[in-house]
Amino acid sequence: MGAVVLDDAGRLLLVRRRNAPGRGLWSVPGGRVEPGESLPAAVAREVREETGLTVRVGEEVGRLTIPGDGVVYDVADFACTLVDPGARPVPGDDADAVVFADAAALQRLDCTPRLLETLRGWGALPG
């Protein structure tokens, strides 16, 4: 699962992945659901672990399946709002960098495969 977080300026929160899959590529914060954890709780935990930010998890914005090495990932992304809009993100956990990116910056970043295309199709990208 993943978090689609926009700041007050309409920029998308992205993390650069420290580990495989997608090491070195930019993506929305997210990860695995722990046993007994709800999807919203997992989304909030992953955002906090990867960026230090606290979010309120809203509605699902989209879902897709991603084939992996011997597995298939069922990914649900959720719209999230920042609890403290003035807080600054700090990379942590499996992120080696974090940024809020506007539409122009998104075009320059090396993102995970189909990220921008998928988010655009869901209407979840910054203007």
TrEMBL record:
A Pfam family annotated for this UniProt entry: NUDIX
Highest taxon listed in the record's lineage: Bacteria
State the UniProt keywords alphabetically.
Hydrolase
* InterPro entries listed in its UniProt record: Nudix_hydrolase, NUDIX_hydrolase-like_dom_sf, NUDIX_hydrolase_CS, NUDIX_hydrolase_dom
Task: Quote one Gene Ontology molecular function term.
Answer: hydrolase activity
Domain spans labelled Nudix hydrolase: 1-124
Q: Which cofactor does it need?
A: Mg(2+)
Q: Which family does it belong to?
A: Belongs to the Nudix hydrolase family.
Q: Which PANTHER family match?
A: GDP-MANNOSE MANNOSYL HYDROLASE, MUTT_NUDIX FAMILY PROTEIN
Protein name per its UniProtKB record:
ADP-ribose pyrophosphatase YjhB, NUDIX family
State the species of origin.
Geodermatophilus obscurus
